[in-house]
Amino acid sequence: MSNIGIYIHIPFCAGKCPYCDFYSLPLSADTADRYTDALCREIDSYAGKGIVCGTVYFGGGTPSLMGAPRIERILSHIKHSFTLTPDCEITLEANPCTVTPDIANGFAGAGINRISMGVQSGIDSELAALGRKHDSARAAQAVKYIRSAGIDNISLDLMIATPGQTPDSLRRSVDFLASLEPKHISSYLLKIEKGTRYADISETLCLPDEDMQSRLYLESAEHLERYGYKQYEISNFSLPGYESRHNLKYWNCEEYIGFGPSAHGYFEKRRYFYPRDLMQYIEAPQRQDDGEGGSREEYAMLRLRLTEGITDTLWRGRFGEPLPKEYIERAKKYQPHGLTECTDSSVKLTCEGFLVSNALISGILY
Ligand code: SF4
């Protein structure tokens, strides 16, 4: 059954991490209630259209700050307006500091069946340098609470190339994350984004240089694979069968409906987004059209983020024509450098290729 995904952006955080450029503001109970009302109104506007939904994702921000009753209410409106598949994956992003046994039980009771938690490192001094409020012991405790609440589908985030990180400390972080036995690990290279505090003080941060960043990325992928976490996307690894079904919709260029300020969506062949303005969203959401989605280039660009890459079979299934030969010919030029793997009917990037994915993808497509 073909189905869409739903993304709900929760724009609240307890504080601002110095590297983060996601849209988030401090939480107040009144604003969170008004925001919940606004989300529910907009979700209701899809009622009666017969839309089937296979994944729901609460991202942020810190969705776990909303508390279970608000999340439950939003989910009840989703269930009323959409038909959820029996195996619908319902993910909520959580910050380790916000997870208590009561909160974990509340989320499980509300219908959350997957938690994605920003652990980021297993080394307490690195967590402090990242401005995170938790330490590794608190992260381990949060995982225990989530699992005791009956949610076993847990994903943990790891950050690579953070200030002061070394190959040895990164390996120890992977060891730590693996010891918590999550089903999925997202492992992101730190990017210094304009407008963040890290951008202002980047000179003082002791950040790994480009060569070291590459080494850290490749070593973390190797080490994660030793624990059985198979890479399936540039930054994502999972045990077999536990790939993020919601995020796979993005990379497979499938449709999803986004709600909330700064959220993007792709529905009925159009891309759209909402401005980063919480009060505007609460008063009257102003969805901005962002053009047609699903072109051949867009599909190829997204699929090349996946270790499977693009294949003739999938291409024919989607566009009713063969995979363009010129993509394969151009990709083959990178093969001797170990950056791509090509056959006569498929193209994929290697782990080394992922390090320069932007340049490679544009070299293959244009
Ligand atoms: S908790 Fe997450 S979303 Fe919030 S500021 Fe920190 S990194 Fe950004």
Bound molecules: iron/sulfur cluster
How are strands sequenced across the largest beta sheet?
Answer: 7-8-6-5-4-3-2-1-9
Number of helices: 15
* CATH fold-level assignment of the largest domain: TIM Barrel
Q: Considering the protein shown, what is the CATH homologous superfamily of the largest domain? A: Aldolase class I
CATH architecture of the largest domain: Alpha-Beta Barrel
Give the terminus-to-terminus CA distance.
Answer: 34 Å
β-strand percent reads 15-25%
Structure in words:
This protein has two domains: 248 residues, Alpha-Beta Barrel (TIM Barrel); 70 residues, Arc Repressor Mutant, subunit A (Orthogonal Bundle). The protein is built from 15 helices and 15 strands. Helix 13 packs across helix 15. The radius of gyration is 21 Å and the shape is globular. The two termini are 34 Å apart. Bound molecules: iron/sulfur cluster (SF4). The site of iron/sulfur cluster has 11 residues, from loops.
Briefly characterize the structure.
The protein has 366 residues and is of the alpha/beta class. The chain has helices spanning 29-44, 68-81, 101-110, 124-129, 136-148, 167-179, 197-200, 210-226, 245-251, 278-283, 296-303, 312-319, 325-332, 351-354, 357-365; strands at residues 4-10, 52-60, 83-94, 114-120, 154-160, 184-189, 230-233, 236-238, 256-259, 264-267, 270-273, 288-292, 310-311, 340-342, 346-349. It is built from 15 helices and 15 strands.
Structural key phrases:
single chain, 366 residues, alpha/beta, TIM Barrel, Arc Repressor Mutant, subunit A, 2 domains, nine-stranded mixed beta sheet, three-stranded antiparallel beta sheet, 15 helices, 15 strands, globular, binds iron/sulfur cluster
